[in-house]
Prior knowledge:
The protein is an alpha/beta fold. It has three domains: 2-55, no CATH class; 111-295, Endonuclease Chain A (Endonuclease, Chain A, 2-Layer Sandwich); 309-473, Endonuclease Chain A (Endonuclease, Chain A, 2-Layer Sandwich). The chain is built from 17 helices and 17 strands. A 15-stranded mixed beta sheet has the order 4-3-2-5-6-8-1-9-16-15-14-10-11-12-17, with helices on both faces. The protein has a two-stranded parallel sheet with strand order 7-13. The two termini are 46 Å apart.
Amino acid sequence: MLGGLIVLFFHFIVAPFAVVHALLFKRDHRAALGWVSVSVLFPIAGPVLYFFFGVNRIRHSAREVTGWKSKLPYFGYERGDIFLPQVPPPLEVNTYPLAHVGWRTTATPLIAGNAVSFLKNGDAFYPRLIEAIKSARVRVWISSYIFSGDGIGMEIVAALTNAVERNVDTRVLVDGVGAWYSLHSLRRSLKGTGIRYAEFLPPRLLPPSLHINLRNHRKIAIIDIEYAFFGGLNIDNRHFVTSPRIDNPHEDVHFELYGPAAISLAKVFSHDWYAATREMLVVAAGNREKRGNSFARVIEDGPDEGLDRLAMTLLGLVGGACRRIRIMTPYFLPHRELVGALQGAAVRGVVVEVLLPQQSNLRYVDWATQHSLWELLQWGVHISLKPLPFAHSKLFIVDDDYVLAGSSNLDPRSLRLNFEMDVELFDTKLAEIVNDYFDDAWKDARVLRLEDLDQRSVLTRLRDGFFWLFSAYL
């Protein structure tokens, strides 16, 4: 009798509920159709599978991390809170038409008057960071996905400890999963130094906290208010490229920003620190005095309110490009809309160049990437594979005056799951420097051709296709 009631309950209440939820809230019609079919054909197992694997909990969990509470969890659309500005765009769009894209996706204006420097690899970045820490008077806030507790990490800790002795507000935020990438514990090394240390969502069993997918991938350093660093470098010896002692060097770039836009980066750190500690940091208004000629705008992206902000910005940039699009990324698994936009740009005469590592540190991502590159090659997108050292740089360059740089890769993990941060930079001279960097890397790379992919063996194609199935989770 009880078994029959359970079967009826699933048939007439639970299964229809799963169908209605999928119809209302799934973004992809193929996913919705699949879950509706499973729930109808298997009215007991189907809804159970849908509850565990079909309901998107990422955004709900991410918003709870940042302090938001839901009265009705898991009921809502898979979208960020985007508020399109209702006022005319700022005047800078007359000079930089692409500025309209970021204005619409972030509702924040460009900030003028910044001096931005290009820092290549840890060889340039780490000494400059240590120098800036030594000169700090008010605060040093550092956020990094990985902060190794040895080598260069300890040199930076020494500079931070000295800053504490000068009564500088000194804080370090490290991702809870990224903290495990180093064999040497940074937490242990910081004991007794006076440096405020926190981890973003560290995995733990008691009380349970296993938000493995919600990672803070941002790399930011705030010195006082007017100085800031951002880009793709973690604090780790692997980013020393010229040192013969490093077995597997990672090439990457960082930027130093001096000017009023630094306050926007400080606010990003403040938000992340609150998410990790529930301590609110006050970010006072900085000096608006002009320091250089760069316009800058910070784009926060994440699975909470910032969901799709960066993805939509990229689509707008590709559609607005006039001459050239250049992409450098270590992991390249673009969503369907971006693939179509890049194809469309290529067929309308825009030169589209994508520079990928010949071999990344995640071979299964390389294999998944190979599976679908033919879709871009057949429509005239140029793709080259750079040999070692591993190209870990993340750059998106459009025409001759636009650079988008920061922490995000072009894969689902970055664009859907991670907390990321990129910065738009409108500066012709800076773009020229970054383009020169791209040119040097492209010269050493091997051009990938459609026939190269066609000549893969059946077993290789099956391997690539298998890992491609899991693109959303790699």
